[in-house]
Structures are given as structure tokens and as C-alpha cells.
Amino acid sequence: MNKKIKQNIAFFVFRLFSLLIVGVLISILGFIAINGIQVIDWEFLTTAPKEGMTEGGIFPAIVGTFYLVVGSLIFAVPLGVMSAIYTVEYAGNGRIVRFIRMMTNNLASIPSIVFGLFGMALFVNKLGFGDSIIAGSLTLGLLTLPIIIRTSEEALKAVPESYRTGSYALGAGKLQTIRKVILPSAMPNILTGIILSVGRVSGETAPILFTVAAYFLPSLPDSIFSQAMALPYHLYVLATSGTDVEASRPIAYGTALVLIMIVLFFNLLAAFLRQRLNKKLKQH
Length: 284
Prior knowledge:
This protein is an all-alpha fold. It has helices at 3-36, 42-46, 59-90, 95-108, 112-126, 133-157, 161-169, 174-203, 206-211, 231-240, 245-283; strands spanning 49-50, 55-56.
């Protein structure tokens, strides 16, 4: 068997597996869309649940999910990006950096329910935040921090070394080079990591179960110390227990579809921002 035949066989296998993955994704999305689109209307998106969550809408859960995503990013993005800047630009490749990266990788592999228990012990009980948006946001921020750190590190490493040396040659200092040259060049890839974290945060149930999620709360939260409904936990309750499962199943599919659409919106927004940033970098 010559090399060309082997190459064609390998390409065929890779293409087949790629098509299988796409097919599975389309099947899942199609199933959710077909079952969920029938219940989605303006009332479903803008009203509170009622009648044991078998009627009404999911507006408080949408708002709660938005608060948790934004709150976790406010905590995790600055801390994660600054940690990546330290390890890549300042710390070199010594033992301390290798230890930090090992611990970051270990942190990323911890089950989300462990983060939920930790968040309950620290933020809810020890710091006295109670079941609240701030406790849930900080817990989700810790959950997504390893993703942001690792993707930000890779984004910073991908910036050509010539950018740094050229900036130093023009008289710029270390901090000025990072702020004016390295971060703008790495930002499109950093956004990728942020979007990955948004996808994980918006779909997590276990951490918010212990720190913020309310079973039935038709009113909107009035502060960061209030409980809130969230789409993942709302979907869990609808699909499993605590209500008439058969009557609420269409609402569960609708909730799942809305959650997917929110994640898709953030992905499209990130793609748009990446395109704008790349275009601006090319112009410079």
C-alpha cells in the first residue's frame, strides 16, 4: 500500500468522524429545537412561572442566569488574565511557575459539585453572604478561573517575540509593552477562553444549587445578596422533581432551547469581537 492510498484512507476516517460529530450535534440541537420551539413566545420569555411552574414563563430564570454569568466574569476575567500575564511575562519557567500550572490544571479537573460545596462553606456560611447572587457568582468564578488562565497563557505565548523586542527597541517599558502591544495582539484568543467559560458557567447546576438557586422565585432579585432563579436549575427541577413532570416537560424543552440560544448569542458576540479586533490589528 503506497503513501497516497494510506493518506486517502486517513483523510476519509478523519472526515467520517468529523461528520459523525456534526451529526450528533445537529441531532441534539434539532431534538431540543423541535420540542422546545412550540412553547417559546413573548409571554414565555417575559413573564414569571406560575401554577407550580407548569404555566407562565422563565423571565426570572433568564435574568438570574445573566446576573450569574456577568458576576462570575467580573471576578474571573481580571484575575485570570493577570495571572496569565504574570506566569508568561514575568515569572519565566521556573519551579514556581510549573507548580502554579500544575495546580491550575488540577483545579480545572475538580468536579463542579466540589466547587459548590466549597462555595457554600466559604461564601455562604463563613463570609455570611447567604444564598445570594454574589456567593453564586464567586463560586462560578472560581470554577471557570482555570479555563481563563490556561487559554490566556496560550494566547500570550502565541504573540510573536518580535513584537516584544520591537517595542523594547522603541523605548517602551515592560508594562507599557504588555498594555499597548501584547494584550491587544492576544485579545482575540483571550476572548475564546472567556466564551468557553461563559458556556460552562451558564450551564452549571451543582455550584448554584448550594449557593444561590431558588426553587420557585417569581420576583426578580433586588440586590447581589438576594437569591435568584437560574435556567440550569430551573430546567433540572422541571425535568426531575418537585412539579408535574409531564405537564412541565414542554416548558423544560423550551427552557433548554433558551439556554442554548443564550450560549449561542455569546459565541456569536465573541466571534464578532474577534473579527473586529483582528481587522484592527491588521490595519495597524
